[in-house]
Amino acid sequence: MRLLRYFLFRLLQMFPIALFIVVINFALIHMAPGDVSILLAGEGADPQYMEEVRQRYGLDLPLYQQLGAYIGQLLQGDLGLSFRTREPVIGIIAERIPATLLLAGTALVLASVLGVIIGAVMARRPGSAMDTAVTTLSISLFSIPVFWLGLMLILLFAVTLRWLPSSGMVSIAGPREGIGYILDVAMHMILPVLSLSAIWLGQYVRLSRASVSETLAEPYVTTARAIGFPERRVMSRFALRNAMLPIVTVLGLELGLLLSGAVLTETVFSWPGLGRLIYEAILSRDTPVIMGAFLIMSFTVMLAALLTDLLYAALDPRVRL
Amino acid sequence: MTDPILTLDTLRMVYNADPGILARLTGRADPPVIAADDVTLHLHPGKTLAVVGESGSGKTTAGRIATLQERPTSGRVLFEGKDVTDLTGTALKAFRAKVQMIFQNPYDALNPRLTIGQSLAEPLTLHGLVPKSELRTAVLEMLEAVELRPAAQFADAFPSELSGGQLQRIAIARALIIKPRVVIADEPVSMLDVSIRSGVMNLMRGLQRNTGVTYLYITHDLSVARYMADRIAVMYLGAVLEEGPAEALISGAGHPYTRLLIQAAPDHRASEVKRQRIRLPGDAASQSGLPTGCRFHPRCPLAQDVCRTKVPPRVDLGTGQTAACHFAEEVRQDGLAIPA
Amino acid sequence: MTPGLAKTVRGTLRSLPGALSLTVLAVIVAAALLAPVLGLPDPAEMAFDLYQSPNADHWLGTDNFGRDIFARVVWGARVALVVAIGAALLSILIGSVLGAVAGYFGGWIDGLLSRVFDIFLLIPTFFLILLIVALFGASLPLTIVAIALTTWPRSARLMRSQVLTLKSRVYVQAALAAGASHWWVIVRHVIPNGIAPIITDGTILMGMAILTEAGLSFLGLGDQNLVSWGGMIFEGQRHLRLAPWMSIAPGVALLLLVASLNLLGDSINFAMNPQLRTRGGAPKARTRVAPPANEPEPTAETPILEVEDLRLVYTAGDRKIAAVDGVSFSLPRGGALGIVGESGCGKSSLGSALLQTMPNNAELTSGTIRYDGKAIVLNGKPVAEKGRSRIDALRWTRMATIFQSAMNALNPVTTVRRQMMDALRLHKPGIGKEEAAARIGEVFDMIGIPRSRMNAYPHQLSGGMRQRAMIALSLILEPELVIADEPTTALDMLIQDQILGEIADLRERLNLSLILVSHDMGAVAESCETVAVMYAGRIVEIAPTRRIFDRPAHPYTRTLIGALPSLTGPLEDLASLPATDTEAAASATGCRFAHACPAATDLCRAQVPPAVDLGDGHVSECHYAEDFAAEAADPQEARA
Ligand SMILES: Nc1ncnc2c1ncn2[C@@H]1O[C@H](COP(=O)(O)OP(=O)(O)OP(=O)(O)O)[C@@H](O)[C@H]1O
Ligand code: SF4
Ligand code: SF4
Ligand SMILES: [Mg+2]
What we know:
The structure holds 3 protein chains of 3 kinds.
Chain A: H1 2-31, H2 36-41, H3 47-56, H4 63-75, H5 89-123, H6 129-141, H7 146-160, H8 178-216, H9 219-227, H10 231-253, H11 255-269, H12 274-283, H13 287-315
Helix pairs in contact in A: 1-13, 5-8, 5-13, 6-8, 7-8, 7-11, 8-10, 8-11, 9-10, 10-13, 11-12, 12-13
Chain B: E1 6-15, H1 21-25, E2 33-43, E3 48-52, H2 59-66, E4 74-79, E5 82-83, H3 89-98, E6 99-102, H4 116-126, H5 135-145, H6 151-155, H7 164-176, E7 182-186, H8 194-211, E8 214-219, H9 222-228, E9 231-236, E10 239-245, H10 246-251, H11 256-264, H12 305-309, E11 314-316, E12 322-324, H13 328-334
Parallel strand pairs in B: 3-8, 3-9, 6-7, 7-8
Antiparallel strand pairs in B: 1-2, 1-4, 4-5, 9-10, 10-12, 11-12
Chain C: H1 3-14, H2 16-34, H3 69-105, H4 107-122, H5 125-136, H6 140-167, H7 170-177, H8 182-218, H9 229-238, H10 245-272, H11 275-278, E1 305-316, E2 319-331, E3 336-340, H12 347-355, E4 362-371, E5 374-378, E6 381-382, E7 384-385, E8 388-389, H13 390-394, E9 399-402, H14 406-409, H15 416-427, H16 433-447, H17 463-475, E10 481-485, H18 493-510, E11 513-518, H19 521-527, E12 530-535, E13 538-544, H20 545-550, H21 555-562, H22 582-587, H23 602-606, E14 611-613, E15 619-621, H24 625-630, H25 635-639
Parallel strand pairs in C: 3-11, 3-12, 9-10, 10-11
Antiparallel strand pairs in C: 1-2, 1-4, 4-5, 5-6, 7-8, 12-13, 13-15, 14-15
Residues 255-256, 294, 296-297, 300, 302-304, 307, 312, 325-327 of chain B line the site of one iron/sulfur cluster.
């Protein structure tokens, strides 16, 4: 019950943020060089459509009314039409979300689970040669440009060894249903997931190493040992549980950073997700799609932050509900 | 008695009095904290007044207001008879040259990036008291005065190279180098080791003898207060419960709280037979939501019905001692043994 | 250079990653600076030798236009560094000013600015930059500005929290109280002390900026007129099969530069806080030994705890600290021993050695500990029987501890009741729910915690209640011996007194043996029959309580007693000591107290004093113990 009230309170706080993001978007459109109607309709739109856009967004009205009209359109879920395909942007984006979710979700789960485990293991022997090596390695991992890593993986596994497909989500002539389809997608996923999770892995190892070793130095861990809890239990009940708190927070907050990696990876592997969509939109100067994607991404990150907050509140009794 | 040099007149200080609208609407506002509530203290020139109280009793707040680092919600600060509560600008700066402060934590008292000499010279520079060419001499003299020798070596050291006792001596030197009239010392020895403490206390007493400076000495330890001070004020939950000459107050306290404090002080000189402890009903006090009537009644072993409803008056016990308790006279006579 | 800064620089240079990354950075910066004078081929010059793999003429090969890739990589370093430095500087500049203003002035300014920082943190910055560049056209300055505009809140938040802590630092308060203006304080005290983490973070910002620019270029949103590594990979991608070297070289360069920046930041961070690297960890495996042969069976007379020549040494960097340096004592069953001494004399270290909960950098170099006649530590090594350390069989069921700060010693995310339940269940696996609940309730009643507070989390209890909860936890399994390390420090006078009283009561009721560690002579005096005074790792004097106060036979004990102001006794001037010089004490060839002892002689400086047995369990390590014992400490008491 208190959790619900807390949730509503946090939700309330999200409104100004959402508004702020929309206003940024709006301001950028108006500050950008060139005609607003062209940006909203896309270059080379036919005059009739252009006129329709001018009407819809109230482009002849004073600025604040335009903002109102813009927000009105957004509230109706209208992100405009893609200039390239003339379809509603919202639909185009929605179509691409599952692929991105599949890719980013898999990589995220893989990286975070593995990262937390490796980090926790390293935290047991802080300052050891192994620990220093792993720390240095994870720093190097997240210093790799993800798109370059993708290319190198393609070079090795697709071009040289010919083990795995290098692009797309399915083989052109592959099966479209059943276990064969799933296997086909899985094969296509290996390389992009690998490159994406390798980069994130570095982050999570560092984070978990820092957080767990911090917790292991806490006096209540010493208490647990003095009570006689076996080390395995000290680790799981005391250290990991408490170390999860900062990890969860960062996980939620850095989702935006993670998504940028997804875009680049999808570009390299021609993965038919949001990232690829953005890339195509950039190439064809399809501004409505780029703006739509930015808004959707922003709201996703906000939502993730909200959920993180809730999770944190559920995990830590010290949070004031 | 001489006229007081510094007077705190019915001070009241409330933090968080005004939470934001959003916080209030959602019921998440922190409750206001009454840090000081009716505090009146007089400092007499060349003397020491000790303020004794547990953490959160408002003794530090009183000290911060006395140096005008904080402005009271209501009440006045008088310096040499003049109201200085709302001073700003150059007048405030001039006031600061006369009323200085020593803080609790010596390990944090000095900028780690400056040498001791630089830190000590800072107040002199700020007030333009000594020409640049003579700064060094003034600094060395002050270091000698706080018994840090060889002075030149200390002047060139960085804070991280010194021990807690030495650091606190330098903090004292910094407060005294501009020859203030009044020094507010906020628990200056509580973070030091016992054997170092007495050195710092002796130093402060010696400096007072030599310069005639006035101290407001804040402490949680009655025996330290007794050692340092001419008069003692006992604070609890933001108010002064008892005030009087040090010896009179300790030998004949008129407030149950003072009595309990005296009893609780661990004393190795106490007899081998374990002292009888009174089990107190309440736990540590909280400052939001003051109790009605006497603010000490939830923990007072003598509390009566009248205590729960009526705020006790400040009873004058003669010889300059006052206590805010309905039964002050009786407590002074018979201690905590009076019949309920 | 202040000692702190010098230490940081030294620490960074000494660590392998730090030195390595600095070297790589230096090479890259030098190459970028010297690019025009290195005599490289023009990076834009097209030639006919297309797609050449690396060879003697073209070290890294040529691209689809026949341009020399090595030259392009070197020139690309310039773009990368310009982006890194430009974006980081701009971001730090905007961020620190706004962060400092928010932190220093607080109030509604802070409220407003902090909201803005938070909002920016929630914006997926890469997409915002992407949008900006897509809308406004690709150019390097715009990219830099866009990166800075989206990353400044990071610096701002950092600066704000720095300023918030600095603002409450005593030296800042002192400067203000001395009459300094806000600007004086900000410029002289706040910025110099707060800037370090922001500069460190700058290296990470630089890495982020480089990767962002590379990402943009890779998406085709880079400045077309410049040679950028991201752009090179963008072009290389299309020729991946034909000329993989086109993408390999710039990627390696990116990786090297960004990794060095991140590693450098990391090394500086560690050099500033060296304990970050080695803190915590699981207890390391220590060599265990078998119990000694023919241990006598314990009798009623056997002391519950016996310690002989215990030594504990910490290793900190290349320093060795002998925190416990030859401690011996014996505690009879049901007895109470108070250990007093000043900060750093090794009290807590001794406690941790008794409980075998030392940190990993601690080593017992000698000593035997016997619990109820059975050795649990033999010559510094834990004793194991049938593969199990003997101490593990004693934990909490026979030997428990009360830690100093209950706030940290209790698990913050578990209720007090639950923690007690867990301890109970661990040692009595078969115990039923009702029985366990009854036992917990019983202990709560005994300690004086209302049962209504049982399900509270530690942070919901007041300081006194929390300390009581810690005591309750220590008693839940009815141990015989409790080791309490400063159980009342940091509590208010009245509560401290109450809790000491409760401990003394419990001891009598439960026939507990007690070791009470404290820096407060008075507190120990009322609860213990025997008092041991520790100085620089040794027990310099041990005696029955009355005796040690009436006839202290060690100058250090005398100073400790003489330094305590009395509340009820006559007013006398207090004795005082110069600060304990641990270095001097540790390196002393004779008595370790000689450097501060008012009675020191040449004999003291030359020879280690023997343990002088003065009878009735009174032992003092002083050459002149007998002389001191002959005169009473307190002239008043002697007269009385
Ligand atoms: N983990 C550690 N690594 C290195 N040195 C340590 C460590 N813990 C303590 N020391 C050092 O060992 C000495 C004894 O420390 P210890 O904590 O036992 O003293 P203490 O008497 O309990 O002091 P306090 O009264 O401040 O608690 C000190 O010099 C301290 O700096
Ligand atoms: S007024 Fe009553 S409750 Fe207050 S201190 Fe006196 S006796 Fe106690
Ligand atoms: S042996 Fe000498 S130096 Fe040491 S305590 Fe005794 S008198 Fe002092
Ligand atoms: Mg300790």
